[in-house]
Amino acid sequence: MRQAIAILDSGVGGLTVAKEVMRQLPQEEIVYFGDTARAPYGPRAAEEVMKFTEQVVDYLLQFRPKMIVIACNTATAIALKRIRLQVDVPVVGVIHPGVRAAIKTTKNGCIGVIGTENTIKSGAYQQALHAISPHIEVVGLACPLLVPLVERRLYHTPEARRVVAESLRPLSGIPMDCLILGCTHYPFLSPFISEVVGPKVALISSADETAREISAILFHRGQLAPPGPPPVHRFFCSGDPAMFQAIALEWLGEQIKVSPVFWQMTRLSSS
Ligand code: DGL
Predict the structure, then answer these.
(1) Which of 55, 116, 195, 201 is the most exposed place for a label (fewest CB within 10 A)?
(2) Which residue from 223, 231, 184 is spatially nearest to 70, judged by alpha carbons?
(3) Does any ligand 1 atom lie closer than 6 A to the CB of residue 188?
(4) Measured between alpha carbons, how far is residue 121 from residues 36, 98, 125, 195, 209 in Å?
(5) Which of 8, 4, 2, 115 is nearest to 69 (CA)?
(6) For residue 10, which atom of ligand 1 is closest to its CA?
């Protein structure tokens, strides 16, 4: 029996990771949960993000996945350690993969990180970068207005371009040579982000490196899916499935079926 890889995010951001997993590991089956009804997680209290992440993991465990991927930087920063203690399958976050990719890329040792308020406030990127390379200069900036633009499917609009330009203004003059997109929603906005920071600053998305980490872990555990018919992925969201589906179609380039989990919302209630 094929065992799926479970991927979760506060919303559609984890699709950036899912897309890379589909590309690098085409035999792997994915079960995805986007907690769109409660996104964004970025401005919420840490205890609430902890609770929501545990609830979503709990929901995904019913599918008996072989691995859990927390494709949300905010939830990784707050909940990764605790979730690892709670489940008996490997749990992968997105911060370390992004950090490794940035360290591989930087030449001048000055790295910018943009993320949600919670991710930047947690200092998780700074710690992870310094754990590997103590002399790296890290400049973090919270960009709270970006996730709602993506969740509302406004990432191609002039409004998005303006909000991105304004949000990133504090980074002007920083001599960084790479910028970590420390939120899995941000790759949706990379054309506008690139426009602001210029061609000399490499944008680092953790999606690619996270998929590589998943691949390496499954290989070492002897758990890579064997060749066979194409996998059937399953997508769930707690909010509007039509919006999720429309965004997924644009990002993944394929029509997917998204099942709403309204019944679950009573259990997942934020109160
Ligand atoms: N994709 C999530 C992240 O990487 C967005 C968090 C949010 O919902 O604010 O942090």
Answers:
(1) 195
(2) 184
(3) no
(4) 23, 17, 10, 26, 23
(5) 8
(6) 8
Tell me the domains of the chain and their CATH numbers. 5-93+208-269 (3.40.50.1860), 95-206 (3.40.50.1860)
Q: Residue 201 in contact with residue 79, Cβ under 8 Å?
A: no
Which residues are the active-site residues? 72, 183
Distance of alpha carbon 220 from its chain centroid, rounded? 24
4 three-state secondary structure: coil
The whole-number pLDDT of residue 263 equals 52
Tell the residue number behind the tokens 């970590």, with chain if given.
180
Could you please report the per-residue DSSP string of 60-90?
HHTT--SEEEE--HHHHHHHHHHHHHH-SS-
For 3-14, the pLDDT digits (tens) are 999 999 999 999
For residue 266, pLDDT beyond 70: no
* 10 Cβ below 6 A of ligand 1: yes
**Percent helix, percent strand, percent coil in the chain, to nearest 5:** 50, 15, 35
Gyration radius from the chain CA atoms: 18
CB atoms within 10 A of CB 216: 10
Bridge partners of residue 91, in order along the sequence: 68
Ligand 1, residue 115: give the atom nearest the CA. 10
